[in-house]
Structure formats: structure tokens, C-alpha cells
Amino acid sequence: MLERSIPLPFQLDLHRTLVGVRRGAHDPTCHFDGNTIVRASRFSSGPSTLRLEIRDQQIEATAWGDGAQDCLDAIEDLVGLNDDVSTFQPQHPTIERIWRDHGSVRMPRTRGVYEALIDVVLEQRVTTFEARRAFHQLVSKWGEPAPGPGGLQLPPEPDVLANIAYYDLHIIGVERSRADTLRRIGANARTLDALASAEPADAYRRLTSIPGVGAWSAAEVGLVAFGDSDAVPIGDVHLPSDITYVLTGTAVDDDDAMLEALQQFAGHRGRVIRLIQAAGLHAPRRAPRYAPRDISNQ
């Protein structure tokens, strides 16, 4: 067990900052409890469980497992302390108000491209409920207990994921296309995680060169693993309507309309999306929530 205290240079909303890292209230790899967050993850040095809590304007962190040191070293990126907001000066009245009220929400950077892709691929073409159920079953069946207390599970090791038979994935609701993509990212996990240190343009180019990983999937990974404040998921079912509704007053279900509305925030378009979501703003709902059909590279 290793411990570290990190002074906070600004107010930080830990839960809303890390909400994109957790896959629902029953995520077996991540648990939110009051002011505490516990998360299990893998590092090159080994698995680790991280416990985070904000007390007296500082983060109190405890890590267990062979990857504990690397885990602690990654905390400032993980919770958005290195997120650069110096050029974010919104003039839009709604976004200016949201930023004033929710400026404690920052962009996380987990560096875990492999782990982020597991979540993202499972969310393709299905409802949120179906994706989270499949993730829970995948981790419960092929993951392993995380080190330390908390009862969390680790995502499957890359070699394990790469060799799961299609039939076994089919049983948990993952059809052939997503199953093939999951096995592919398992086989290339080390190369994928290295993309967290690559230039953004090159990282996205290499991500979308993988069959089954299109623009939407790459942007979702960017928002979590890269800490990319400008990433915009293209192809999402509800996002264009939500963003255009908040920014223009009219919900338009069109990616081009969303990109046009976000253009004024170039460099921080992903941040604006996350702030709108943190504020709980969205267009009126008219249909069940489905995840995007990410087919640009299938």
C-alpha cells in the first residue's frame, strides 16, 4: 500500500470529472461512494486499486498492488489537474454560466486506451443498459479481483480478451462485429496504450485505422484516455440534438449542425460537451437512448 497527498490548486468536482471513467452505478471496476472514488486499473508494472478522497483542499490517495507507484504518479492527469483551461473564455451566455457554476469539472486523462476501448466498443449499436450489462458480465467472467480492499474487479488482461471465443461473447450479448473488435484491441493493447503519449493527430489516425474503431469511438477514447478537450464524438444518437438545443435553442439531429454550433469553442469543444452534460442540460427526449452506430471503419 502506498499513500500520497496532493494539494489542489483549484476547486475540483471529483465525481463529475471522473463520471466518464465509470460505466454506470454498478461498474465492477469503479465505485463512487459519497466523497470517495475507488478504481481498479492495469499499468505496465501491474494491476492497482486506487482510492481517492478530497479533504481540506487536497486529494488523499491510497494505492494497492504491483502498479501502485505508477498509479499514484498518474493521479494529476487522471483527475484533470494538468487540464489547461487558460484559453477557455466562453462568450456564449449559457456556457459562460455553466463554466462559472461548474468550473470545478475538468477533463480527465487516464492514459488507458485499451481499457477505454473495451467500454466504447461495447457501447456501439446497443442501448446503454445492454452495453453496461455486457461490460459487467465481461469483467465478472474474464477479469480478476483487484488488489487491496473494495471488492473491485480488473478488466480482462489483454491476452485473455484476445482469446475469448466468439460464442462466449455472443452469450453475453456481443455480436460478431463487436466481438472481433474486442479481440483485436486485446491483441494490440500495448501498442494502443502507447498512443496516450503520441501526437493527437497521429493517435487518432492510428486508432481509426483499426477495423471496428471509427470516429465516434476514437473521440470517446480521446475524451477519457487522452484528456482531449476538443474531441467531438460524431455519430452519437442524441448528442447533436442536445448540443444544438443548448447552444442555439433549437434541437437539430445533425452532426454538421452540431459542429457548426461548437465551432466558436474550437480547442475546447469536448469541454463544452462535458460541461453541458455536467449541468444536466439536454433536448427533450423522444425515443429510448441508443448508442451510436460506429461503422466508419467496419
Spatial order of the strands forming the largest sheet: 1-5-4-3-2
Order of helices and strands: EHEEEEHHHHHEEHHHHHHHHH
Radius of gyration over alpha carbons? 19 Å
The main β sheet shows up as: 5 strands, antiparallel
- Report the average pLDDT across residues: 94
| Residues in helices, as a percent range | 40-55%
Strand content: 5-15%
Class by alpha and beta content: alpha+beta
For this structure, what is the CATH homologous superfamily of one domain?
Answer: Hypothetical protein, domain 2
Low-confidence stretches: none
The end-to-end distance, rounded to whole angstroms, is 43 Å
What does this structure look like?
- This protein has helices at residues 14-17, 68-73, 75-78, 93-102, 113-122, 128-142, 158-162, 166-171, 176-187, 189-194, 200-208, 215-226, 239-248, 255-262, 269-278, and strands spanning 2-7, 30-33, 36-43, 46-55, 58-64, 144-145, 153-154.
- With 298 residues, the protein is α+β, with helices and mostly antiparallel strands.
- Among the domains are: 2-84, TATA-Binding Protein (2-Layer Sandwich); 113-226, Endonuclease III, domain 1, CATH 1.10.340.
- The strands form two sheets. It has a five-stranded antiparallel β-sheet with strand order 1-5-4-3-2.
- α11 packs across α12 (215-226).
- The longest helix is centred in the middle third of the chain and has 15 residues, at 128-142.
- The N and C termini lie far apart (43 Å).
List the helices and strands and how they pair.
Blueprint lengths: L1 E6 L6 H4 L12 E4 L2 E8 L2 E10 L2 E7 L3 H6 L1 H4 L14 H10 L10 H10 L5 H15 L1 E2 L7 E2 L3 H5 L3 H6 L4 H12 L1 H6 L5 H9 L6 H12 L12 H10 L6 H8 L6 H10 L20
Antiparallel strand pairs: 1-5, 2-3, 3-4, 4-5, 6-7
Helix pairs in contact: 4-15, 5-9, 5-12, 11-12, 13-14
